[in-house]
Write a structure and sequence with these properties.
- The chain is α+β, with helices and mostly antiparallel strands.
- The strands form 2 sheets. Strands 1, 4, 5, 6, 7, 8, 9 and 10 form an 8-stranded mixed beta sheet that branches.
- A hairpin with an 8-residue loop joins strand 5 and strand 6.
- The radius of gyration is 28 Å and the shape is elongated.
- The C terminus is likely disordered.
- This is LssY C-terminal domain-containing protein.
- InterPro entries: LssY-like-C_dom (IPR025902), PAP2/HPO_sf (IPR036938).
């Protein structure tokens, strides 16, 4: 599976997220409109729900309010945001897989760097820089002050201050290091995720202010514009390594929840004259103008920082062979932060050497992914060797070498799959350069036919047979026994004498 295919898949996934968010917002308003005829006599007759909330929020439950669908949408947004926020914070505090997924996603996005995408991400990231945040806050305050909408102005200031305090407190409490890449241009707010939190809270609340007095078409346009801008900003900062995934999720979730809470408080009071069309245009011009100037001034430095690569670790051959191997990962790390397959092989040298050794023992490359091979999954009698191999990641990296083996003592519906990933460790070679250590995993797959509709590779949990078959095919391995928990493993070091070239 190529890098371009993954990027296309991520693009479609982003569009699916936007479509799901828009569908949820539309569904919430549609449900409220359908329930209003039923709720009006209930709320008017019994008033029971009103007694369950503070007196100052009673106007929000007035069945005669035309803003009831919008209030319901804010309620859905608040519940979803708080659920995401508390879920992410629980994972971070408990050290759950999300912590490991941060690094896996960061490494995956680093491997997907292409020139046009980097330039696009740098430009979009500049639209959410510290200069834009400060200019946007000042511009909104001046506009609302001129319109004498002082209540909305106070809430806008509160939105920004609350987001800054949250990110600062979270950074102090968790004491997490920021990603090693910081290609964000001018940054006036030093805490990780502050830009996303402030922009989400500020734009979310201003969306409530603007949408309160405009029609349905205008509301859809405002909500769509905010979703596209914030989603693009989040994706750009993740792609450039400016924020970890967990940081981005928790700050956006807090910003959305904070905006919803302030929106509820603001809707209790009568609407203020803010000239919503002019306010929306002013916000758009500030983002594009200040962000464009900031990006143009800092584009060269941002592009240079965006090309930085994560440094490698240096380890001598002697140290590696006499215990240094234990410092390398023992299992592969998935994009979800889970450790799965064990690494029975650490290989020093060039992958082409290992490919030649395994090819001599019956291993061969799998078919590539294309339209023709994709149709083979819908053939009941397709042999295992004719099916492409499912992509697997280790710490966000695709394997550099994939080989399969069929036949021999294996049943007709099974195959062995060997994957080789790069490690961050380099070993000085005898020729004066460096050779990389590679991590190999092997799995046994059974080709199932669920519902007699398609062929589906399913990994067999027992790795023993596959591991021994692989080690027997390696040339001159050094094997050592180690215990990984309660499961004994055999770790084979392969040091080919033919070449040490990386």
């Amino acid at each position: 599976m190529t890098r371009d295919t993954i990027m296309i898949g991520l693009g479609f996934a982003g569009l699916a997220v936007l479509a799901a968010a828009a569908a949820l917002a539309w569904a919430a308003q549609a449900v409220v409109r359908a329930l209003v005829p039923i709720l009006v006599p209930i709320l008017a007759g019994f008033r029971a729900p009103v007694r369950l909330v503070p007196r100052r929020l009673h106007p929000l439950l007035d069945p005669a309010r035309a803003e009831l669908p919008g209030i319901a949408t804010l309620g859905v947004l608040l519940i979803a945001s708080l659920w995401l926020l508390f879920g992410v914070m629980q994972d971070l505090i408990a050290g759950d897989p999300l912590v490991h997924a941060d690094h896996a996603v960061l490494h995956l996005l680093l491997s997907l760097r292409v020139g046009w995408a980097v330039r696009l991400a740098v430009g979009w990231s500049a639209l959410g820089s510290g200069a834009v945040v400060v200019a946007l806050e000042i511009g909104i305050v001046l506009w609302l002050d001129r319109q004498r909408a002082w209540r909305a102005m106070a809430y806008a200031i509160t939105a920004a201050i609350g987001a800054i305090l949250f990110t600062a407190g979270l950074d102090v409490a968790l004491d997490r290091p920021a990603p090693f890449l910081r290609p964000t241009g001018l940054s006036l707010l030093p805490f990780p995720g502050t830009h996303l939190a402030v922009l989400t809270a500020l734009l979310g609340f201003m969306g409530v202010v603007i949408c309160r007095t405009i029609g349905a078409v205008g509301r859809i346009a405002v909500v769509a514009a905010m979703l596209v801008f914030l989603t693009g900003l989040l994706a750009a900062r993740l792609y450039l390594g400016a924020d970890y995934l967990s940081t981005a999720l928790e700050t956006v979730a807090f910003g959305a929840a904070w905006a919803a809470l302030l929106g509820f408080a603001y809707l209790v009071h009568p609407a203020e004259a803010v000239r919503p069309a002019g306010l929306g245009v002013a916000i758009l011009l500030l983002i594009l103008g200040v962000g464009g100037v900031s990006g143009a001034l800092d584009q060269r430095a941002a592009l240079r920082d965006a090309t930085l690569a994560h440094g490698s670790l240096i380890m001598s051959r002697s140290i590696w062979l006499h215990g240094g191997w234990a410092r390398l990962p023992r299992r592969s790390l998935s994009l979800l932060g889970d450790y799965s397959r064990p690494f029975p092989v650490q290989f020093l040298g060039a992958p082409r050497v290992l490919r030649r050794d395994l090819t001599d023992h019956g291993w061969h490359p799998p078919p590539p992914w294309n339209a023709a091979t994709l149709l083979r999954f819908f053939g009941i009698g397709t042999p295992p060797g004719a099916l492409p191999v499912m992509p697997r990641f280790d710490d966000g990296r695709l394997p550099a070498l994939v080989l399969i083996r069929t036949g021999g003592t294996l049943p007709a519906n099974r195959r062995l799959v060997f994957r080789l990933w790069r490690s961050p460790v380099l070993v000085p070679s005898r020729t004066g350069g460096f050779a990389r250590i590679w991590l190999g995993a092997v799995s046994l797959e059974r080709i199932g036919h669920p519902g007699s509709i398609m062929a589906l590779p399913q990994e067999v949990r027992s790795h023993g047979e596959a591991r021994h078959c692989l080690i027997r095919a390696l040339g001159a391995p050094i094997t050592v026994a180690r215990a990984d928990g309660h499961t004994p493993l055999r770790l084979a070091f392969v040091t080919p004498s033919r070449t040490d070239a990386p």
